[in-house]
Amino acid sequence: MGQTRRHFVKTSAKASGAFGILGSLGPIACGPVDGGGKPSGYSSESKRILILGGTRFIGPHQVKYALDRGHEVSIFTRGRTRPPFYHDYFDRVEHLVGDRNNDLTALENGEWDAVIDNSASIPRWVRESAGLLANRADRYLYVSSISAYATYSEVGMTENAPLAQLEDPTTEDDTGATYGGRKALCEQAAQEAFGEDAIIVRPGLIVGPGDNTDRWTYWPIRIDQGGEVLAPNSPSDPVQNIDARDLSEWMIRLVEEPGHGGTYNATGPAQPATFGEMLEGVRIALDSDATFTWVSTKFMSEHGIRPWSHMTNWRPAEGQEIGLLQVSVSAAIQHGLTFRPLSDTARDTLAWWNTLSEERRAEPQAGLPAELEAQVLAAWRSSA
Q: Please, which pLDDT band fits residue 33 given cuts at 50, 70 and 90?
């Protein structure tokens, strides 16, 4: 084959000085809105964006934002999952149907300015899709995770921290024990195929409307109910998370033009925050009468309360996990990541939750069951 699409675009950009212009703009190029009310950013031209995945959680936010900015969007899915919202937007995208595991036929033709890979947790999937698209797309953004790191033993970890490794790099066992190592190998596969045009985004906990895991949604639900709320350990414990809309919109801006290859931690807020600040911010946003009783890590453990699954968005800030909720996000901020107010996330998450069916809301995927909360609060008061 002659000159590849990526090579042609790259050499054309260099010839016109495009890289120098983009470099001088830096984060300013990702401004939020122009004077006419239209979302601003890098690109004034329509781009062709392929999203691998696109119907769950971050995908619909990406689709909406990309179409609002005038881009053409294709999504590659199995055709089984109905997006949770923005249904009219999905009438305007190209639907490519296949399976990351065994059927990439729908990706064998076509060209795109950028690919966003939302759905891969198996390295083979990325090797195959990125390899297939390398000569027909200019940029490839792989959505990884901060779980790709080997440990979190330092506060303020940057993107250069050591990554998790698998004893068996060929494993495709979809377990929590192999998740981090598999994500690290997925990153490597994207970089091998796209080189400096690969973008690796490592989100922390993603929150907000559309979260099918309920991993943060527990807090606005519980605080909205009011009364005495069991809170984990200490109000000074650290916390990080990112609204799915902030993450999704930033990723669309990242792929609009060349020059953003590299790796980025993607969580928030911009400045270090504490769990107490987060819970109080949610309480104020929802105008709740909730009060918080902070129960020690040791006491919670003795009474069967688990970090992360019961106490969502929280783990003890100690030992090998002291930096889990304290990673550096300076690189992402320098490349345009912005954050909406916590109050907006809290109100919008609760409003979305209240649109779900009674059956769905009766079976939350995470959070502290009311009976266990009441039992532990009573025991805590008795022990005082």
A: very low
Q: How many C-beta atoms surround the C-beta of residue 259 within 10 A?
A: 20
- In angstroms, rounded to a whole number, what is the distance separating the alpha carbons of residues 66 and 43? 11
125 Cβ contact partners less than 8 Å away, ≥ 6 residues apart: 100, 101, 119, 186
Which amino acid appears at position 71 of this protein? H
Mean pLDDT of 243-251: 98
Higher-pLDDT residue of 279, 8: 279
Domains, in order of start, for the chain: 35-208+243-269 (3.40.50.720), 218-239+271-320+340-383 (no CATH)
**pLDDT at residue 4, rounded to an integer:** 57
Give one DSSP letter per residue of 251-284, joined into a string.
HHHHHSSSS--EEEEE-EEEEEEEHHHHHHHHHH
Q: State yes or no: cis peptide before 162, omega within 30 of 0.
A: no
Q: Copy the structure tokens of residue 174.
A: 């979809």
Phi and psi at residue 57, in whole multiples of 5°?
Answer: 50, -95
* Stretch 16-37: mean pLDDT: 31
Q: How far is CA 367 from the centre of its chain?
A: 20
pLDDT band at residue 184 under the 50/70/90 scheme:
very high
Helix (H) or strand (E) holding 302: helix 297-302
Q: What phi, psi does 50 have (nearest 5°)?
A: -105, 125
Cβ-in-10-Å burial (0-12, 13-18, 19+) of 329 comes to buried
Q: Which residues pair with 229 in a beta bridge?
A: 292
Q: How many whole angstroms from its chain centre is CA 31? A: 20
